[in-house]
Amino acid sequence: MLNITKIKADFPIFKNHPELIYLDNAATSQKPQIVIDRITKFYSNENANVHRGVYPLSEEASEAYDEARQKVASFIGARTNREIIFTKGTTESLNLVAQSYALNNLKKDDEVLVTDFEHHSNFLPWQNVCQKTGAILKILNSDEKGFISDEEWQKKLNKKTKIVAIAHASNVLGTISDIKKIAELVHGVDAVLVVDGAQAIPHLQVDVQNLDCDFYAFSGHKMLGPMGIGVLYVKEEILAKMVPYQLGGGMIESVSLDDVIFADYPEKFEAGTPNVAGAIALTSAMDYLLATGLEEIRKHEILLSEFLLAGLAKIEKVRIFGSASANERTGLVSFYVEGVHAHDLSDYLAKRGLALRAGFHCAMPLHQSRACGATLRASYYLYNSEKDLEFLLTSLEEAISYYG
Amino acid sequence: MDDLYRSELMEVYKDPTHRGHLSNPSIALEKQNAFCGDHLHLSLKIKNNIIEDAKFDGEMCFVSIIGADFLIEEIIGKTIEEAKKIDQKKLLELIDLNLTTSRIACATLTLKALQEALNKYEK
Ligand SMILES: Cc1ncc(COP(=O)(O)O)c(C=O)c1O
After folding, report:
1. Where among A273, A289, A305 does a domain terminate?
2. Which long-range contacts (CB under 8 A, 24 or more apart) does A254-260 make?
3. How far apart are the CA of A119 and the centre of ligand 1, in A?
4. Mutation test of ligand 1: which of A24, A90, A216 has the most ligand atoms closer than 8 Å to its C-beta?
5. Which domain holds residue A168?
6. Are A23 and A388 in contact (CB under 8 A)?
7. Active site (annotated) includes residue A213
């Protein structure tokens, strides 16, 4: 069992906002003191640019950055730290795959498959490369729970498929996809599998070798780390098929007036001064999660999901968006209330200190395909308690009668 | 807890005076709020340059319903020129709600639709 009181005390935001009930973790998580301290320590004691100076401070910063890469590699089970590219977040990671891999490997009439529940950042980059290359973008339609059925795979996946891009967990339905099984299907037609892990890695133990995906993208800020740091994991054999799309300092071996030799990967894909403090502080967040216990966190979230799903089901007029069970989803539930606008509800709830998200959650196609207007999303994490959700449920009932 | 909105606004929200569709409108149009996907239908009856009647309808939030009802109340009986002079600032004064930036788009949805409709009508 997690000790929520103790955990909460590690997050200064709750001291500074005692009324806050933070249920927007799928948008970004709060930060524990050790992550904040790590950033301060870097800029107070260790700040220098990496891979530039030969003086001690720069060498130490370079070493710390390399060490961060190694820690991230072991956190996700990569074979080597060469498979870890630091980015500013999931969005940049996915755009990097699209621009550096897809653009150079797709031909006219090749097919790219994405699901109907993708976040815009795992949809628009594919729409864009398909427009540029003449490849065809096909949509995998999910079932009521948010899974892609076997028939749907059979219907859409074929020899023409070159890339499949899917969220490990949906940011609206919460549903966790079986990536290992999907990787087998995708590799069966010699396509590559790109996984958007933004909503999964904060909640699940991710082992990229076991999942056998080719790319895995995630953001630090949703897993207790700082904003502005993210990761793209790329299976080593694929790195050789990628060309950098951002050019500049830090990614070259030699440059002449009419030629350039790029540095080896992963540096080749990290043009410019990287977010060194962010990368190091991200590993502090990983340390914090590991010390708390990933399995314990997951168990806690499942209990919260069960509690919330049961509570929402009891309120008349509430409709839960997506029917995945507590075990099949990460720590979030989206829902709407018949006859009351999601933004009106969230205004009311905000007044009571409840922070949750209303809208389309950057997944407009999903709301369209399910003919649904804006939804409310409650997303919780290790510092949330059943009491938070109980307060949400009673406030929600009050809000419904206020507008009703 | 303080009520979120003034009670007279709550009454307007629950039973807006100007909700509906005009049967023989001089002009009608649909508008969407990109932020939340809300749909608005606005119809106007104009005679001798005067807005004789107007109605709105659609799937809308509290703020956009208040914005619509207050705006229509304001423009009925006015000339096209007078109605065109109503801007965002004026409308926000009329409804007198404490709005965040994202909700201003809700409040002014009908205003944007009105301006579009009047421009179209004059062509
Ligand atoms: C499923 C999913 N993919 C991608 C993103 C984009 O992440 P970021 O904004 O950190 O780049 C998010 C975050 O909202 C997400 O939930």
Report:
1. A289
2. none
3. 7
4. A90
5. 36-289
6. yes
7. no
pLDDT band of A6, cuts 50, 70, 90: very high
Query: Using alpha carbons only, what angle is made at residue A228 by residues A227 and A232, rounded to the nearest 5 degrees?
Result: 115
Q: Is the CB of A349 inside 8 Å of chain B's CB atoms?
A: no
Look at residue B42 and tell me whether its pLDDT is greater than 80. Answer: yes
> Do A16 and A73 share a domain, yes or no?
no
Per-residue pLDDT for B1 more than 70? no
Q: Is pLDDT at A304 greater than 50 in this prediction?
A: yes
pLDDT score at A1? 87
Q: What is the CATH number of the domain that holds A329?
A: 3.90.1150.10
- Would an 8 Å CB–CB cutoff place B103 in contact with chain A? yes
| ipTM for the complex shown | 0.83
| Widest distance between CA atoms in chain A | 71
Ligand 1 pocket: which residues have CB below 6 Å? A 26, 89-91, 119, 121-122, 167, 171, 196, 198-199, 219, 362
Q: Nearest-CA distance from B91 to chain A in Å?
A: 20
Identify the H or E element spanning A104.
helix A103-105
Which residues neighbour A201 within 8 Å (Cβ) at sequence distance 6 or greater? A76, A168, A218, A222, A223
Query: The domain spanning residue A44 has which CATH number?
Result: 3.40.640.10
Neighbour-count burial of A81, counting CB atoms closer than 10 A to its CB (0-12 exposed, 13-18 middle, 19+ buried): middle
**B82 C-alpha vs ligand 1 centroid, how far in Å?**
46
Pocket test for ligand 1, best of A118, A121, A361 (most atoms within 8 A of CB): A121
Give residue-wise pLDDT tens across range A37-74: 999 999 999 999 997 778 999 999 999 999 999 999 99
Residue to mutate among B36, B38, B98, B99, with most A CBs inside 10 A, is: B36
- Confidence band of A249 (pLDDT split at 50, 70, 90): confident
3-state secondary structure of A254: strand
Q: Least CB-CB distance to B59: which of A359, A373, A402?
A: A373
User: What residue ranges define each of the domains in chain B, with the CATH number in brackets?
Assistant: 2-122 (3.90.1010.10)
**How big is the A-B interface in CB pairs under 8 Å?**
41
